Amino acid sequence: DDAVDPVDDPRTNGLLALDQMLGSAWLSCIRGGGSVSRFMDVLQKVEEALAEDASGPYFLGDRFSLIDIMYTPYFEREVASLMYFKGFNMRDQERYPAISAWLDAMETRPS
Q1: Computed over its alpha carbons, how large is the radius of gyration of the chain?
Q2: DSSP label at 64?
């Protein structure tokens, strides 16, 4: 589906790179070699990326895309593991309103 393929959007490469940074920071944090603060710094960049286009809750605003699909599996693991191992709440609506809105949109989206 062309509507889901984000290749035509100039933000795509940056969002793909950010996904890699987030995964790396998360694994470092969970394995004990990295800090929660480094992960929080990268997570803040994700928050800013999601907030950049206010037309909708997705990374490309109101356009659901492969970017959203790529982030979802790791995000679900990050939310659960960081709460369990570090007591860190990625779903904090005050600290991360765009992430919370994205997670809500992804969870209520028809499959």
Answers
A1: 14
A2: -
Structure tokens of 1? 């589906």
From CA 5, how far away is CA 23, in angstroms rounded?
22
Report d(CA 62, CA 109) in Å as an integer: 13
Shortest CA distance to 106 belongs to which of 48, 52, 38, 58?
Answer: 58
Q: Are 11 and 59 in contact (CB under 8 A)?
A: yes
49, 18 in Cβ contact below 8 A?
A: yes
pTM, full prediction = 0.91
Q: How many CB atoms lie within 10 A of CB 58?
A: 21
Query: What are the tens digits of pLDDT across the range 77-100?
Result: 999 999 998 899 999 999 999 999
Locate tokens 């919370």: which residue? 100
The span from the first CA to the last CA of the chain, in angstroms, equals 15
